[in-house]
């Protein structure tokens, strides 16, 4: 008796536990224990496991059993799925579905916003770690339907906004339930981007390097906050720390940004799941080295309409290539064993997802990996063991298809989500495909019906004559509109009827409006020849155009390699005390200059340099080429925390153009938007190599300072003149403030380090103060944008006060006025050859400036500050022989040895000397001649530019363009979607360029 009572009690408890705890006011409560069995189907339980003639049994929202001998309960509904295939529903790991986005700030305010508008949160409004997607939902049935029809059952939703974008949720596309059932995980991941928030106008960051610096500082601040360092509450930092154990997803975008995001992750011990953009094939080696798992969108560029030859010229070769190459991206990623999953993100509509994926499969992306990338793998990466595969206990999330998923004719018939059936098409539709004999108005016609069962395609022929048709079939009703024989006018015959016993029949109206009868009898021998021919016609051999390094015009099919090179009988401009040597040989081995002399021999390539001139490569001390998404971080009056090293752009065509002008190295500087700018990057122009391979890591480190009109915003416009400083004396106070703060910062850390207290509080790690401290400790050197004598004098005095020296004044167009003081201070001058009067503070500039500073013992160089001028720095140097009677050897040193001295790399580059790096240029005649050409430009013993091969490259570019244009025209003729050509003109960064884009430059990819 006691046992019976206990059992009854357990039943009551279980019944009570199963009860809903909320009232129901729209009817009586009922609980449906639905059971459904889909029988005789081909079932993919996983991407690699297929079960034929199997049954899938579900109960409520779960899978109960899958097998070939499943016992089907009597109460189960049985659905015959003969000839159908069942897969797990797709999972999209990157959407903004159903997110109720915040309202953008209204009104128009042309003035910049420098401070945060959110009290109690992080100091920068582009950090939005406190945003939770699950608290901002607005489920959209229309969009959910589009996703379901594309095969998706579960999506990750987040707000893709801000540097730290908050958290996402994982939920199903189940219209029949509420969020209480749909949501599988309310906080599944924390998100990051390189983008500013669209909901804030705060000026900082205004560049990619600023975004990276802000994210780094935020990580440091989060650690410091977690250790109890802050005396105040910060809701952003608290939210971030609470979510740091979630999956971390980074929307990087462009191929180079994938590497940049991974770099930040490595610095802080974080493994990001990184979203790309679909152009990863262009830098596959570098991406593979990151060992990151990627989320890849499969948005392929539409073909360009190049039917107008003039408009066709506006399309770059790189864009034509990407149109051809993008569909191969997934294949190449798979071949290189780079792990990835797929998303419909970036597509105009989810309906484009499966056709694009099928295209990638047709081009060699393995079917098993394709299926895994949309089912099993996203489930594993999102740590969800109840979706992504079909097994007992998993959610009943699956699709029913008419055939093999990657067959282009296969349709998705049904999508089941959490046990709910969403019909997209009929499960077992009637097929009327076949060849018929049509009897109409006492005449015979051939009626051919092809296409899908629910979307038939009809042709009507009579002899050689073919009639235009439009058909609809809604079993059993059949409607057909046929264009009449009369070619002199447009008239139609309209037929309607039913399909029964392999026959179509009914009534209709002829072109005269008279009622007619008709029948169409299916032929016993159905001809499949036309269908097979059609398949053959559709089978197009797509050829992958070669991927070059970089993947644009004049890229190399493989990265150039070091060679042993022997230059014979050259006129050698050594740049050293030996001067210019006639009929001299120079031997290069393993990237170094190993011998200089006469009658040298070696095993390697011998280059006859008779009558030609060999020099050290030109070094541009002040350059803004090869920088991605912003040369200025002008959102604050100091941006010492940013570094150009983060944003080296190896894809910039100006690298190749500079090589053609004999430039082998460049010092990439931050702009002059603020008194204290960002850190510099010294690179070698290794065309086709990755950014990290171009960077000279062991070179002394520099930072850009600036004086004058730019930093006090004189030329920014009236509405923008809000930021301190607004005067030249204010600029001095900025320096005083930051250097004194850096001293205090160092003292704070010194006190902390020396303290033996157990309760000591760790100071906040401040990247900006760390960099300023490096200057004070003579570990980082200043290159300062300068014009006016008084300010130049001021900064030298500030440096003297704080115990360091300025390394270089760049521009320095009034340097001739105080060259003696510059020499005493030990600062160099990197100037223009003959620029003057292009703005007010340059009115006193003179072309003799370089000669006069050189006369006073100042180390002088000539720089470009411009991507076009840098191609002709040899001619800029030549101008100094006119203005000031500078010798040719000294003039040449202005662009070779002297900039090397200013950058403190003269032990490696800048002259031709045994033991130095083999950065040399072979000129057709004197390097100072306006007629000379750089015939070979060599960096580290690698030939990166060769005039002999230039003509061949030009011919190859034209040949490739013509081939691609023909393919684009063919695509248009086949009815593929096209886009209008867009004129894209590369702009150039200068000192005063603001924002993260340079006019039309860097247009190609968003990040």
What does this structure look like?
With 1007 residues, the chain is of the alpha/beta class. Helices cover 25% and strands 26% of the residues. It has 25 helices and 44 strands. Strands 21-20-19-18-26-25-24-23-22 form a 9-stranded antiparallel β-sheet, with no helix packed on it. α6 (255-267) packs parallel to α7 and α9 (317-325) crosses α25. The longest helix is centred in the last third of the chain and has 27 residues, at 728-754.
Helix and strand composition category: alpha/beta
Describe the global form. Answer: globular
The average pLDDT is: 91
- How would a crystallographer describe the biggest sheet? 9 strands, antiparallel
Helix count, DSSP H or I runs of 4 or more residues: 25
Number of strands: 44
User: For the terminal residues, how far apart are their CA atoms?
Assistant: 72 Å
Strand content: 25-35%
Structure characteristics:
single chain, 1007 residues, alpha/beta, nine-stranded antiparallel β-sheet, eight-stranded mixed β-sheet, 25 helices, 44 strands, globular, disordered N terminus, disordered C terminus
